[in-house]
Design brief:
The chain is α+β, with helices and mostly antiparallel strands. The protein has 2 helices and 6 strands, in the order βαββαβββ. The protein is 22% helix and 35% strand. A 4-stranded antiparallel β-sheet has the order 2-3-1-6. Strands 4-5 form a two-stranded antiparallel sheet.
Length: 89
């Protein structure tokens, strides 16, 4: 399983729309669009989990393509180093 970072999403993007976009390249196992903790508004990025082959295909096909008037950034997600990124209160 590969987790993809999907950046530069329009703030109007819905989970259904993003799922439909990625489903043309394989089976979407998991999808999450990130929202601001305080306001609940979309932050313009999310994560999609797909099988390794499907994720590679989706990454190559969708990176840089227009979605809702914005060029998507799609690449393999990097694990966050939680020890170096303290939580803001």
């Amino acid at each position: 399983m590969t987790k993809l970072y999907v950046g530069n999403l329009p703030f109007t993007a819905t989970e259904d729309a993003v799922r439909a976009l990625f489903a043309t390249h394989g089976t979407v196992e998991k999808l999450s669009l990130i929202t601001d903790r305080e306001t609940g508004r979309p932050r313009g990025f999310g994560f999609v989990e797909m099988s390794n082959a499907d994720a590679t295909r989706a990454m190559q096909a969708l990176n840089g393509t227009d979605f809702g008037g914005r060029p998507l950034r799609v690449n393999e997600a990097q694990e966050r180093d939680r020890a170096r990124s303290p939580r803001r209160f």
